[in-house]
Task: structure prediction
Amino acid sequence: SAEQAEQALDQALHYAGHTVLVSGSTLALCFFGLLFFPISLISTLGLATGLTVVISICVNLSLLPALILSFPAFLLVVLAFAALTAPCAYEALSIETSQTQAQMMPRDADASVAYSQIVEQFGSGSLFSFQLMIVPSDGQVESAAFFAQSRSLVRRTLELAGTEDLLNATGVMLAGATDVPFELLSEALHADEAKCAVLAQLLKRNVCAYARIGWRQLTNGDAELGRNASATYISLAPTFDPFSQQGTEVIDRLREALATARAEQPTFALESAGLTGGAVAMNDSVALVYDFFPMMVAITLSVVFALLGLAFRSLVVPVRAVLTISVSVVISFGTAWLVYGRGGLDFLGWAPLGRYGSLAWSAPVLSFPIMVGLGLDYDIFLLGRVLEYRLLGFSEKASVAAGVEHSGPLITAAGVIMAIAFGALLFSSSASLNQLAFLLTISVLVDTFLVRTVLVPSMMGILNDRNWWPRRLPPVLPPVDLLPLRHTGTLASDSTEHETAAVPPAYGTFDSTSAVAPVVTGRRLTDSRPEPPVEEHALEAGLTDGGSADELARAVSDDEPLD
Result:
């Protein structure tokens, strides 16, 4: 009936609503932590995933109950909701994406094959060279003095950095170890057709064409259009992968050497001089991300600590949660390095789990908030159920046992589902997605099968009555006082000094028609047949009607199941 449906929804929201709100909020905050990164690729991902979780919380705590209660008018509600979401769906279909990183390329795509061939024949530096930008203070690149001083600056920089054999320098004033004569270049830039023909005949090549093309490519000037060059750059093509760790080290050395070389040439008036280019920009972006990464980790864990502390009014709960979540994260990162860094699964011969010598820079950054959010989600599921039993007066160990028994299968099933979803990315042809999938899959499986169902209960068993400190909970009731719980669904104590809670009907009621039902005593959880009334236990123990409550309690010992 409508009244029964309303009562069921009321009970569901009462007991599950708090868990949904807290777990969803912590998950959203973990994703919003990505907003602290100054890279739009990462910050927009954090914004989108965080908003998705917030909307899901609102829908499940408001729209879903409303849909259930308004089932007779369900079609109208669905149509209204479809009309509301249609504009959003249109915008979602209009999203444009781009991939500019070589490591993001699918393995078998034509571009990837061509890229591999170019790297094999010409080296990675042919596509992603470093560029040394030089801007003279007087804005005159076309001068003999600038040519001489810039050549000296470039060669001194390479010498100080120890990269003469690692970088091939090419500019308007030099080509490797060869100097480009300023007089010849200047004459070729401004010569008429007749003079260019004479130069071509003398030098056996079209000097004018080469000079003008190179001038347009390596400066911001154009001799044919009469535009003077006020800046130029020297291409530094590496003989190694510029995106590797070696590339990062060389960039750092070049910047230090350039500063030293400029200090050695005080008469060379420059407005600016610095490294740029695609590989340099990429290295700088990654370095910036990882400079912010520790702060993001600290902020995320601090938010988790504060939110759990407020939700459970405890200091021990957030400390234990942060420690156990860290276990899952560390195991996942360590396992990923063994697989992708050291080739631990190379014997499988499967490319998605093959050795790459490093992890894609995006994988650890993107996986961390997801790992924390999911681990926290599962932790709240478990703690919420344990706390329910503890508030009823069950002992710590009995509450943990009952909580694991009832929430453990749910946590494990949720983990398996998430592992299947994440694991699907292992079949992608992108190495970065493979690594992200591996990190998330290992994290979820470790968290659900080991941490939440083994480590956390063990830690709670060790901490015992300090699990919720400094929060005060109801005293542990003797087994005889807990017997009415299975029949009435209410707490047999109405003490006002501690927190009390009604037993959820799903846990507190007892089905007398069932042959076997869970029986929770103050210290143990067993399966038992329906027990006889308390009076029968008293008679079996030899107590008379005038027996004391203490004698009755001893008769129904928590060391023995009531059967």
Notes: The beta strands are 130-136, 167-170, 174-175, 178-179, 232-238, 270-276, 517-520, 525-528. The CA atoms of residues 75 and 509 lie 36 Å apart. The two ends are 37 Å apart (CA to CA). The first helix runs from residue 2 to 32.
